[in-house]
Write a structure and sequence with these properties.
The chain has about 1400 residues and is of the alpha+beta class. It has 50 helices and 35 strands. The strands form nine sheets. An eight-stranded mixed sheet has the order 25-26-27-28-1-31-30-29, covered by helices on one side. A five-stranded mixed sheet has the order 2-7-5-4-3, with no helix packed on it. Helix 37 packs antiparallel against helix 38. It is elongated. Its main location: nucleus. Keywords: Nucleus, Transport. One of its GO terms (molecular function) is structural constituent of nuclear pore.
Length: about 1400
């Protein structure tokens, strides 16, 4: 605080620096407007410039805060630009061409009313008025929070330039004076535009345009004195002036001061008199002879005062000040007066101060109630700017402004440098050449082809390179020349282009005017091609840069309170100046290279000192010795100087989160122009201080050499050593800041910014670090500008305005104080050895990786603050560059600093609810996440393995890290390592998760051998459980978990489990996969299950029947609901069913048969899968696979009845079917084996079918001849006549049943024939056809007749009396009536009427 107080005291009277506000990007888009009010006119005036500042430009809550308009005129063209230091203005530049006219120097006047901005323009033939809406009307809100807004010139297109009410020709009488360019213009309180111009006949005339919205006529008033009055006021005038130079009262400079209902016009005339007029009264109120204030004025009396200038300054508290510049050859003088009014409306001048200057040509000066700022061109055409406070400065000592020098006239190229690279670096180094100068030179060099406009900095660089290279190649005539010759050619052409740029830069840098803002005290230098700002110079820089003659007269007390101390410091700085001036470029280069190559600066300083001593031709060393003798306490003086330059702070500038910057301040000094100026100021400071530190190091080396002669005892020698080691980091810090101020930021593609944002969000640094991806840099910024704009500005502004009780509406902005304070706050943020880490963090957030790497490289050897944070950022850079292993090394090195550095602490802030592990583990966790999102699994594994050693006691962290290692090994396909990581996981639930993942992933990758062969110590059941639950949960055909489980059990010789698995697989296949492929698989599954059981000892060869249905109790499955939404009851466990080998073989056969059926008829696959044996028989019969059906029935001990009935039905269908049915029948007939092939005649499909039926009846016997019965029954039910072979074969076995069947189907005729044949057979005729061994005889056993059936037949015949058969049967001698005995010719024959229906004759 004390130090700042001293500095503030010294700030009042101190030199200033010029900082260019020229942008590097393409020139702003200028809108061209033209008007031609008159015909051709003569004459062209010198170029001029001017500026206007809004009345509220110093108020914090105003729309026009920090805004101003400046312009340049050249011939008939006026270019107007509105600038803002807070916001980038859109459409802010216009170029107005008033054809055939020439603009008067100083002929542009801007007036401000509450609602309007009015621009009044004077040319040699016309006057013009432009009316624009006031910014406060365009933006009513007082809070400007956007980064850009419309300029006052946005609506210029709507202005009607040709509207007669807004321009007027200057009348030929009184006519404009030809040899004076003075003019003044103002708005009256009624809104009329008034132009005061020098009249051709002497005096002034005023041209009045009516208010812009009122129709009226233009009037002209001439302000002239009566001849008597004139003589009285003027006195005698030499004819020389009157005759040659025109009228003596011709104004050479005009100024106006507006009152409420009047305007005072001040005219400085060529007769050296100042006249004051009242416009309202058209009266001359005062005439003052200014030669009275000039000491030697004889020569001046006879010369016309054409070079005099007049300026006004008004302050509400102090009144009106008049500043007059009295021009005389080789000397000039400023007089400052105060206007004093006496009673009865009389006015006089009160002389305040006279100030003398020796500069040659005054270009412009500006006046405030306390200061004069003046701009000259000296004999060498150099710009000179000085200022003086005439209130306080009694000695008449002007303060220096260090103007920006032009770039070096020549570029020195060392042997190890490439000419092209070196010239490009010089041309495009920030702050050297403006875009416009480079463009113009390019235009000339590329032979003025099409006009080149709007090139970005990079495009311009390419075009320049191309143009010079083309020119070089065009000049080459030989095909071969040496390297050296080519280098010479390169240097020649590049230096030619450089000289061209220099020429244009010089032209554009020509100063035209000073612009002073009385509200904010901002002073600007308006140049031909751009604008520059004058800012206070810091104390140390001021002392070092000041020329010697000033330094000797420097009032020592202004530096420090201690006078002796002040003298010592001044002497010390003079020594430094002596050293600095005698250092050659080669010597300077030694120090530059030492800093760049990370060599100790002390050594370089020693070497430079040796060179200085060796090359000391002008006895500089002696001068330095004698100066050193004058310093009473050199150690103390050096210490003071170092302290002044050191920005190291113990505490970080409070990390005021920028969102607490009040809304009004959010954009303060945020425009491109302000950012450029602030950062150029810092660059200039760093450059100067680097030189001071360099010279100081050399001086300290000299002091060490001189030793006791200067320093005295050993203790002082030791403190000098300490100072040497304090100066060295100071030098390197300024070197680094200077480098950053000149290092351009790269353009970053949006996708890179977005991926960076994603990485920062993983690190949880987005709120502080990241740049918004839509950020567009219009012109190339340096990295310091980027940092100031994005991060530092908000911190600095919130710091400057953080006093809670300040009312912003009353705060007035003071440019010199604020710009100094901002620079003083920005330097600590950039200072490498401060704990704050905002700058490198900002570089990371904005993807400036190359720049960040170089920054850290330059920092690394000597800066021991934030070492870990730097290593971390270096790691981020390496990651982006694709050098992962280097990145990992950096991250590991940074780990040791966790908990000691603010940036790394922010990195590991624990989230809410996050388990708090050690800081270092949290750090590793963040880095692991980062590596994971970038996709570097090998590095994740390495780092996690390292972190495990850190987490020895923390099993939770161990589990997390082992899980992480497992996951990445698995991703990389390192299955064994993944398994190993899984087995070492201390958390069983995580272990289970990993196991589940291992199973799933290896199955998906078909790496099943690994999966089966891992030992799974203590995890066997878990693995089986996981695979089983997966097997039951997923689709059977796409995943082979059952087969995996089978292999798993087989590998471990657990055959019964393997069999169970395959059996369950087969069951589910039949139920769920109703396709041919599913049935094939099912068969294979059952075969595999059988194989498994055959490998076990018979007494153990059984398995448990798996649960039916696919509903396995899966953990986490949602409860099943019925149609009305109620949870259905879980079915109670049924009894356990044991399946033996035989059961499996049956199932296997059934599966084979299903497959056979599906292969024969694919449509049946959908139903065959899970059908029972009975259903299968029906399906097989339907398909005509009778052989298969029979074998199925035999295996499962089922009756063959369905087979016979089915075959009979097929025969019936064939009997009555057409040809199509016949053709189709061959398919299924072919699938059944016929006993023998008949070759005698061609047989039809029908014959073959009957033959098949016949062969089956022969082959498969049944109890009571059931199959014959069912076949005949089937045929008769369909009304098909029985084939003879069938009747004959059934007669043999059961004639009685055949009779009953005939009766059932009312076939009486056949029944009668059968009965008659049967009775004959009993009696011995054809008995072999009925299977009767012994016909009726006395000695044979009894025979039987089905009497009930015969009774039924007789009854049926009786009912049907008309029937011929009934007669036959009843009268037949062979028929005996039941109940009696009939004896024919054989009385010994016994007949027994059968009692039982089922038994036929035996």
């Amino acid at each position: 605080g004390a130090r700042e107080g001293k500095m503030a005291a010294a700030l009042a009277e101190r030199s200033c620096l010029e900082l260019s506000g020229a942008e590097r990007g393409p020139r702003r888009r200028v809108r061209e407007l033209a008007l031609s009010p008159v015909g051709p006119g003569a004459g062209r005036y010198a170029d001029s410039a001017g500026g206007f500042c809004y009345q509220e430009s110093a108020q914090l809550v105003s729309v026009t805060r920090n805004r101003f308009i400046h312009w340049t005129t050249s011939g008939d063209t006026l270019e107007l630009v509105e600038e803002s230091l807070d916001i980038n203005l859109l459409n802010n530049a216009i170029r107005l061409k008033i054809q055939n006219c020439s603009l008067l120097p100083g002929g542009v006047h801007v007036c401000e009313t509450q609602n309007l901005i009015v621009i009044l323009i004077v040319t040699n033939q016309t006057v013009h008025r432009l009316v624009l809406p006031h910014p406060a009307r365009m933006y009513r809100s007082e809070l400007i929070t956007e980064g850009q807004m419309q300029s006052v010139f946005t609506d210029i297109g709507k202005v009607n330039f040709r509207d007669p009410s807004n321009y007027h020709m200057i009348p030929s009488i009184p006519g404009l004076a030809s040899n004076s360019t003075a003019s003044a213009a103002w708005l009256s309180s009624d809104g009329e535009a008034l132009f005061a111009l020098p009249s051709a006949s002497g005096g002034i005339f005023v041209l009045k345009l009516p208010p812009h919205d009122v129709h009226g006529i233009v009037s002209v008033v001439e302000l002239k004195q009566s001849s008597v009055m004139q003589r009285l006021l003027t006195g005698w005038m030499p004819t020389a002036i009157r005759g040659d130079q025109g009228p003596s009262d011709l104004p050479v400079s005009l100024s106006v001061h507006c009152l409420e209902h009047d305007a005072f016009l001040f005219a400085l005339c060529q007769d050296h008199k100042l006249r004051m007029w009242s416009y309202k009264d058209q009266m001359c109120l005062m005439v003052a002879d200014l030669l009275e204030f000039v000491p030697v004025n004889k020569d001046l009396r006879l010369a016309a005062g054409t070079g005099h200038r007049l300026r006004l300054a008004y302050s509400q508290s102090l009144g009106l000040y008049l500043g007059v510049y009295m021009h005389a050859p080789k000397r000039g003088q400023f007089c400052v007066f105060q206007l004093v009014s006496t009673e009865s409306n009389r006015y006089s001048l009160d002389h305040i101060s006279s100030l003398f200057t020796s500069q040659e040509t005054l270009v412009d000066f500006a006046l405030t109630p306390a200061e004069i700022w003046a701009l000259w061109h000296d004999d060498e055409n150099q710009t000179v700017v000085k200022y003086i406070n005439f209130e306080q400065n009694i000695a008449g000592q002007w303060n220096q402004v260090f103007v920006q020098p032009l770039p070096e006239e020549e570029v020195n190229i060392r042997d190890d440098q490439d000419p092209r690279e070196t010239y490009l670096e010089s041309l495009f180094m920030p702050g050297q050449f403006t875009n416009a100068a480079l463009l113009k030179a390019l235009q000339i060099f590329s032979r003025g082809g099409e006009r080149i406009v709007d090139l970005t900095w990079d495009e311009l660089k390419k075009e320049v390179t191309l143009a010079v290279e083309n020119e070089l190649q065009g000049s080459v005539t030989e095909y071969e020349f040496s390297q050296e010759e080519f280098r010479q050619l390169q240097v020649e052409f590049w230096s030619k282009f450089y000289a061209c740029c220099l020429q244009y830069q010089e032209a554009l840098s020509r100063p035209l005017a000073l612009h002073l803002n009385p509200y904010t005290n901002m002073v600007c230098l308006l140049k031909k091609g751009f604008l520059s700002f004058l800012v206070p110079c810091s104390l140390v820089d001021h002392l070092y840069l000041l020329p010697d003659e000033h330094l000797l007269t420097e009032d020592d007390s202004t530096i420090f309170d201690d006078l002796e101390m002040s003298r010592d410091v001044v002497c010390l700085v003079q020594c430094l100046r002596l050293i600095g001036e005698s250092i050659s470029m080669e010597m300077a280069f030694i120090m530059e290279m030492a800093c760049s190559r990370l060599q100790p600066p002390e050594k370089a300083a020693e070497q430079i000192l040796e060179d200085l001593i060796a090359n000391d031709t002008e006895n500089v060393m002696e001068d330095i010795h004698s100066k050193l003798q004058e310093i009473r306490n050199p150690i103390h003086a050096i210490g003071v100087l170092i302290r002044e330059m050191d920005y190291e702070t113990e505490l970080e500038m409070e990390r005021a989160q920028p969102h607490n910057v009040r809304m009004n301040l959010s954009q303060l000094y945020g425009s491109g122009t302000a950012v450029t100026v602030v950062c150029r100021g810092v660059c200039k400071m760093a450059t100067t201080r680097f030189l001071i530190c360099r010279d100081l190091l050399i001086l300290q080396q000299l002091l060490l050499r001189l030793g006791d002669m200067i320093l005295g005892g050993g203790q002082l020698f030791q403190s000098q050593q300490d100072l040497l080691h304090r100066t060295s980091p100071l030098l390197l810090s300024y070197y680094l800041i200077r480098w950053a101020s000149q290092c351009l930021a790269s353009d970053v593609p949006v996708d890179t910014l977005e991926s960076n944002l994603q990485h920062l969000s993983v690190l949880e640094l987005t709120d502080t670090t990241a740049l918004t991806p839509h950020k567009l840099v219009s012109s190339p910024q340096t990295i310091v500008e980027l940092f100031f704009q994005e991060v530092a500005r908000k911190h600095i502004i919130s710091h400057l305005f953080s006093q809670p009780n300040t009312s912003l509406s009353e705060t007035s902005l003071n440019w010199p104080h604020l710009i100094t304070a901002i620079a003083a706050d920005l330097l600590p943020l950039l200072w490498p050895s401060n704990p704050g880490f905002l700058f490198p963090e900002c570089l990371m957030g904005s993807c400036q990786y190359t720049q960040l790497q170089e920054y850290i490289r330059l920092l690394q050897p000597w800066c021991h603050v934030n070492v870990g944070s730097c290593r971390f950022l270096m790691g981020r850079c390496y990651l982006v560059m694709g050098e992962g292993h280097k990145a990992l090394d950096c991250f590991c090195q940074a780990a040791s600093e966790v908990g000691k550095e603010e940036f790394l602490d922010r990195l590991i802030r624990a989230e809410d609810g996050e388990m708090a592990s050690t800081p270092r583990l949290q750090y590793y966790d963040k880095v692991l996440r980062l590596l994971d999102i970038i996709g570097l699994p090998e590095l994740v594994i390495q780092l996690a393995t390292l972190a495990i050693t850190e987490a020895a006691d923390d099993w939770r962290s161990q589990a997390t890290l082992r899980t992480c290692i497992f996951k990445h090994h698995l991703d990389l396909g390192h299955n064994s390592q993944a398994y190993e990581a899984l087995t070492q996981n201390p958390d069983s639930s995580r272990q289970l998760d990993c196991l589940r993942q291992l199973v799933v992933v290896l199955c998906e990758r078909s790496q099943l051998q690994d999966l089966v062969e891992f030992p799974y110590v203590n995890l066997h059941n878990e693995v089986v459980g996981i695979i089983e639950s997966r097997a039951r949960a997923v689709d059977l055909m796409t995943h082979n978990y059952y087969e995996l489980l089978y292999a798993f059990h087989i590998y471990r010789h657990n055959y019964r489990k393997a069999g169970t698995v395959m059996f369950e697989y087969g069951m589910r296949l039949g139920r769920e996969v109703r396709t041919l492929r599913g049935l094939q698989k099912q068969g294979n599954c059952y075969l595999a299950a059988i194989n498994c059981l055959r490998l076990i000892r018979p007494e153990y060869a059984w398995i448990v029947q798996p649960a039916s249905g696919a509903v396995y109790e899966r953990p986490g499955a949602s409860p099943k609901r019925s149609h009305d939404g109620e949870c259905t009851a879980v079915p109670s466990k049924s009894l356990i069913e044991i399946l033996e080998l035989e059961d499996l073989e049956k199932e296997c056969m059934l599966a084979r048969i299903r497959l056979t059926l599906a292969q024969h008829d694919p449509s049946t696959a959908a139903v065959a899968g899970s059908s029972s044996p009975e259903e299968m028989v029906a399906l097989l019969v339907q398909a005509g696979l009778f052989d298969t059906a029979v074998s199925l029935c035999q295996t499962f001990k089922l009756p063959l009845t369905p087979v016979f009935e089915g075959l009979a039905f097929k025969c019936i269908k064939l009997q009555f079917g057409g040809e199509v049915a016949q053709a189709e029948a061959w398919d299924w007939l072919a699938a059944n084996q016929l006993s023998s092939v008949i070759t005698t005649k061609e047989s039809s499909a029908t014959d073959e079918a009957w033959r098949l039926l016949s062969s089956y009846l022969d082959r498969y016997k049944s109890q009571n001849h059931l199959y014959h019965h069912s076949v005949i029954n089937k045929l008769l039910s369909h009304g098909v006549p029985l084939p003879n072979w069938l009747i004959n074969s059934y007669k043999k076995v059961d004639a009685a049943e055949l009779l009953r069947l005939y009766l059932n189907y009312a076939l009486l005729e056949e029944a009668v024939d059968l009965v008659l044949e049967y009775v004959d057979a009993l009696l011995g005729k054809g008995h072999e056809h009925f299977g009767i061994e012994h016909p009726l005889s006395a000695i044979a056993p009894m025979v039987w007749l089905p009497y009930s059936a015969i009774d039924q037949l007789l009854q049926a015949l009786g009912e049907n009396t008309t029937n011929h058969h009934s007669f036959v049967v009843s009268t037949s001698p062979r028929c005996c009536h039941p109940g009696g005995s009939a004896r024919g010719d054989g009385s010994n024959t016994k007949v027994h009427w059968g009692e039982r229906e089922q038994v036929g004759a035996r």
